[in-house]
Design a protein that fits this description.
about 230 residues; Rossmann fold; 13 strands; alpha/beta
Length: about 230
Amino acid sequence: MILVIEDDPGIQKVLHRLFITDGFQVRAAHDGKEAQEAMKGPAPEVVILDLMLPGASGKDICKSLKRTFPNVPVIVLSAVSEVSDKVLLLELGADDYVTKPFSPRELLARVQAAIRRVAGPRPVKAYSFGAVTVDFLKMEAKRDGESITLTAHEFRLLKFMLENAERVLSREELLNHVWGYSCYPSTRTVDNQILKLRQKLEVDPSNPKYIRTMHGMGYKFVGQIQ
């Protein structure tokens, strides 16, 4: 079940249709009072929270949600585009945020990614996307049936990106999780590794389909994974 806390009837309708179509149950709250009532019920899988609510502070609601449901991802909808990602997330305790106007498809992808993160990495030994297959147990990769040689760091980088598909990963986060650096020598390390991965995996490395650059933020893996 997804809890949608949003006072705009039009956006409520769009989100309800979006999540119902994808097989989720939806509970709606239109203001702070209804949001507080919703917190007395069972924990949702994800909360979609509009920051601008009548009669309540969206920031306070977010903090209450995280106290009540500490393991439930909260995705904030915000029209405040000038607030940086990191500051907003740290202040509110939210897990992600989408700036209005938003793409329903992108929001759905973020919801699915949030649910996967809570559930933990999938116990999958092999992944495939497009013409690429990767077996992390055997440390083997192929594109169109032909073997691709990946370094150990390239395997680790690709695995982390696949496990966090559709989520923007900063260069610092990639360095920390893939290389284990506590003091980063240079974020160009990530850029160079991404470039090499694209050259090996993408049909057109200069116009990547899967490993996308999110300017000013980092990188994101996009695509259907099997």
